[in-house]
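Dataset card, provenance and construction

Sequences and ligand SMILES were collected as paired inputs. For each pair, a complete structure of the chain with the small molecule in place was predicted and serialized as structure tokens. The example below shows a pair involving zinc ion. Curators did not alter the output after generation; any descriptive sentences attached to a record were derived from the structure itself.
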Amino acid sequence: MPRARRNRDRLKQVANWLRASYPTPYPVELYIGKLSLPNRPIEHGGDCTRVHKGRRRYLLVRIEERLPRGDAIFYLLHEWAHAHTWACDAIEKTRAMHPDEFWLALGRMYRDLYDVEDDEDPTVDFPW
Ligand SMILES: [Zn+2]
């Protein structure tokens, strides 16, 4: 499938791939919108939180829409790694925000998406 041209569509494409490849313990809702004040530098690129509305529980992944494409995709991978490794509340309250399993998941996603081998320099020619 060709890469979508618009950043928003590309983020949705990558999110669909993540949904299929990196399951999460709760459904993930993706929000692409304004997370920082308008006309100000971007201070917040994205986040992942658990939402509990009535009987419905899901993870909300938010990405700042003003980010350049490569940064937005990287934020999406980062936040999805949180979603993929999300644990029960008791564990989430006590463990580090970025535990080892988070970095392992993020590394796997990154390698899968960009098809990067261990001996390659991923900073060369990013295929966003
Ligand atoms: Zn994080």
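Derived descriptions for this record:
The longest strand covers residues 56-64.
The chain has a mean pLDDT of 89.
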